[in-house]
Amino acid sequence: MQKTILAKTGNEAMALAMKQINPDVVAAYPITPATEIVQIFSQYVADGEVKTEFVAVESEHSAMSACIGSCAAGARTMTGTSSQGLALMYEMIYIAAGLRLPIVMADVNRALAAPINIHCDHSDTMGCRDAGWIHIFSENAQEAYDSMIQAMRIAEHRDVRLPVMVTTDGFIISHGMERIDTLPDAEVQSFIGKYDPMMHLLDIKKPYTVGAINLTDYYFEHRRAMVDAQNNALKVIKEVGAEFGKKFDTNYGLIEKYQLDDAELAIVALGSTCGTAKVVIDKLRKQGVKAGLLKIRVFRPFPAEEIARALENIQTVAVLDRSDSIGGFGGPVFTEVRSALYGSAKKPRIAGVIYGLGGREIDMEQIEGLFMDLKAGQVKADSVSYLGVRD
Amino acid sequence: MANLKELAARGDKFTGGHRACAGCGATIVARQALLAAGDKPVVATCATGCLEVVSTIFPYTAWDVPFIHSAFENSAATISGVEAAYKSLKRQGTVKEDIRFMAFGGDGGTYDIGLQALSGAMERGHNMLYICYDNQAYMNTGIQRSSATPKGSATTTSPNGKKIPGKVQFRKNLTEIIAAHGIPYVAQSVVGNWSDFTKKVEKALAKGGPAFIAVLQPCRLGWGYPPELTAEMGRLAVDTNFWPLYEVEDGKYKINYTPKERKPITEWLFQQERFRHLKRPENQAILEEIQKDIDLRWENLGKKCSQ
Q: What is the pTM of this model?
């Protein structure tokens, strides 16, 4: 199978994936830095390159509402947003998952106001981590492209039936030009297959009610069923990632271990920072420092067991969070990773590091410095510190 | 238009057994709207509120048509999505039937929190009928004032107090706001005039494109009158010119019913608990303001019809 090498920004790569998925409906609203995704996609619609009905809604709240209506009507449905847009959708984010609708959304991670900021951090999607969506982070444009295609399969899988958000780091990935391998349209179509919903609103001979009120007698069971679906997704995401690898040569899992098996010092991170960390680790390894990285690709469902197994034999771990739980004990990645390790017989010394809020640069020197601090025992276990902020 | 005999022979698509109050007008709106659609397939949605809460208590449903509820402020956006899916799938040949789309929302979900979503859907031109069941307050949460609440009305958030005698402001004229969108069909109807409402639903569905009908819907609990008077309270609102029955078809205004003799507004107000305090002599000026406002609105409507 012939792949085509293209120079694409993250946004262009995601828009291309959407074009190749060729959804029945896209409902979206512009927001920096995700605007380009729907802008490029609108051009595909205007040029008749997709069969999609594009709904240019008047807000993100309506974007997700229209996606909910569309998906419940049996249409393959996609959207894209970022930051404040995701925040405005928040109510509907929960409802999309609760109604078990396999919507796929591209979210370009951007900081939340106030102060208003347009640059990357993960506070937008972390703010809805309990909503029932599957969250897939991307290290680069290639992963964003590949994950969008896989997301459709994961979302629509009968054992899952949950919406998926695929995220990229705002500007760093969304606007950074990269070399990506792209697949032929027909290969994407054959990989995702035909959407065959179990029930839908346009099946007028079988009328049914979506979104009924559940009182004390049913609500709990329906929410519990979402937990089962998330647990099923752990397996489905790996299956889909392996099938993708078999067909297109790149395997995807829930996590990625980089120089981790024999590592003494490790960092845990999400998104584009992982790419920077890998370069630093290569350098440190040459110097004889046993440094490694655990990249979390899938934050929901949270692969707690895999993470615990990957980290339990390491001496010292720093968990990097690009969002903060203000007033809490560390960022969401730190608290969940630390919690995942609680039951392990051997536990690493583990600390939380908050970095990069509002797009604050994280560079190789900082990551190297962090490893050096870990090595020197200067990072206090069970503490949370801030990297790259002026005190 | 279908006559009463024909309507009676049609099976209900909004069925009994729901949990609405005795004398509820909202369920009459839903039942009559779906009856008016006849054998045309309809997909319906409803904003969070009385109608949704009483009709879809899981695992039961009163809706014998495909139905979706998602949230409060977005029934217009939700049905936009359903209609977009229909357009796409029809174009692709996977859906064959000719389907209509109906959205219901109360005045809170339409005049207030859902106004933006409604305006957006009307502007985009979705093929849908939005029906606002306007009972003039947030009834589901316990009778709070909305921008549809008439001046002088006591609600739980505009109570009649020692200093302030009920709602201070006049109500918003949503029908005119929607008419300003220049959509094919906008109308006002009322619970208590089945033939007017049926005709308007039929017309709206036949026109194609976005359509909007505001239905004044008496609420016995929120308004404070005996449940058997629901239809009567609707008709009296029309006979006092408080709620004119009119339509705007392709931009042309038409009053559908002119009372032989306009009744004074007090005949309507004084049958309702929410206006009881207006009987007091110190509130006489408010009554006069209300009457003046009604007459002015009627006059302005008349001018629009003669244009």
A: 0.98
